[in-house]
Amino acid sequence: MLVKSRLLAVGLLGVLAVGGYFTLRAGHASPAIVEKQAQGPDGPSELTNIDGLALSRDGHILATVSDYTVSLWDTTSGKNLLVLQNRDNESIFAPAFSPDGSLLATASTAQRYNVEGHLLLWNPATGERLASVDNLSFPGCVRFNPAGTLIAVGGLPTLYLVDPSTKQIVRQIDRPHQNGAIQAVVFSPSGDLLATGGRDGTVKLWNLPDLGLVRTFSVSDPGPYVSPSEGGPPRAIVSSLAFAHNVPRLAAATQGGSVFVWDLGRGKEIVHYATTPRSPQTPTSSKSGTGRPSPPTTSGW
User: Does 222 fall in a domain?
Assistant: First the structure.
């Protein structure tokens, strides 16, 4: 019997996490919702939730994370192609395709909250596990550079650069973000910059390949959060990052629903979408109190 699962990519956060580039235009405050029914072969019942997505560059294969298991789907037919095989007590997450589609990288830990983790490399056509880069500190996010010659892995508390051809760590920085965990990583389209987002209310821009710090941007939320174990004042948590594909701009989304865009040439914030806490009778509002996201200060990308 066929198993049906619903795959949803909703709103700007999904665009930032999956697309790798984005377009914002005045007057288009509500991004479209994309919905597709996916059919899979006999197996577990339904995907109970989707915790992560990655799309191959040619758009033909979608990787989903559900209950710490990665599945691959044909985007044309919606059919399940394969499920990456977990080992005993192994959690697999944070999928990322290489630019040519020949590799799929994921993070893994022996248990869901085990600090010691791995970067796994897979053949997405067969599901074969090709290699493992071990002894990574709680890896949480993974991304290939545009040339496919580097993989950035954001951990807790370490940032790693891995060469996929040698399976070796070529550079690392301990505690690039104050609160430890790196929530998001993304390379610029030219591959000469890397952006990271943390739980400390900052986005950092790094030169490659030496990982020299170029600039630090701050983000905020109307209701920032910090866990008791982290301590310190509440800070906004960065959830996703994206570079524009044709102009020097960088966007960040926060867990609280704010979006920031910076002009990298000037190092200035040029767009800030924000929401304010609402009562059950009050619609979500922007920082200007209009009930709509604040319009961007630019007409296009």
Answer: yes
Q: Give residue 67's domain range.
A: 3-273
Task: Classify residue 240: in a domain, yes or no.
Answer: yes
Percent of the chain topping pLDDT 90: 63
For residue 187, give the CATH number of its domain. Answer: 2.130.10.10
CA distance 233 to 227: 10
Phi/psi at 17 (5° precision): -75, -35
For residue 240, the one-letter residue type is S
* Tokens 């000469």 sit on residue: 192
Domain assignment present for 115: yes
Domain presence at residue 14: yes
Do residues 76 and 92 touch, judged by C-beta distance below 8 A?
Answer: no
- The count of domains in the chain is 1
> pLDDT digit string (tens) for 41-92?
545 545 668 889 999 999 999 999 998 899 999 999 999 999 999 998 899 9
